[in-house]
Amino acid sequence: MTTPPYAxxxxxxxxxxxxxxxxxxxxxxxxxxxxxxxxxxxxPGNERNFDLAQALRRAGYAALVFHYRGSWGTGGDYSWGHVxxxxxxxxxxxxxxxxAATHRLDPLRVAVAGHSLGGFAALMxxxxxxxxxxxxxxxxxxxxxxxxxxxxPVVRAECVAALGSDLLPLRGTSGESLVRExxxxxxxxRLAGLAPAFEGRxxxxxxxxxxxxxxxxxxxxxxxxxxxQRPHILLEHTLFPTDxxxxxxRLELASTVTAFLARHLAPPAR
Length: 270
Prior knowledge:
Layout: E1 11-16, E2 19-26, E3 34-40, H1 50-58, E4 62-66, H2 80-93, H3 97-102, E5 105-115, H4 117-128, E6 134-138, H5 143-149, H6 153-164, H7 175-185, E7 202-208, H8 216-219, H9 221-228, E8 234-240, H10 250-264
């Protein structure tokens, strides 16, 4: 009698932009193939949602956490554009035949979930990749909306200072260069504009009601309203009375995300 595979936590790596990205894959026990959730951390990545990865594994999902270029010791330079490129590359890589077979993953059941900047990257990545089956944004940072606010010189200076104060785990960037990049992208990075790409697809938006980093009035409520205008988006949304890291709502976060995925990542028909 063959013993089914045990749960494991292998280190994995991916290539994006010529750099090697380090990741940790949380694999459940059993033969699988398991649905997989790619977790995208925020800026600069102090909260990496490993508790969410563990909760997803307990619920039967494989969960991947990785670092972008130029962050936390990874080679290359950090930028918003590189975050988007790296997220897209990793989401594609977990579906590759050899990687999926090695780790008992189901390439037809891939979801993307992100926190803060990771929420922005999750929505941008999924909008450009129809093979992503479900998308979750938690306290998502709407870079395009922030860019619009930065047309005010006072707000721009505040944004440069705020981003510049959080650069210790990052390399090759500055508050000024990050603000310049977001304002150059402008409306192309406004999350409301992605709504047509999510027609017929499930999206979960989680806002945070006591959050000065991504105030829900600016980053959550307008996005919910924009997506509600598209009745064919399978939209779910909630607003937790908590801070940006969901410090006192981690269990609620895990249960909300796993319940959402259970509704939308059912095994494909045989």
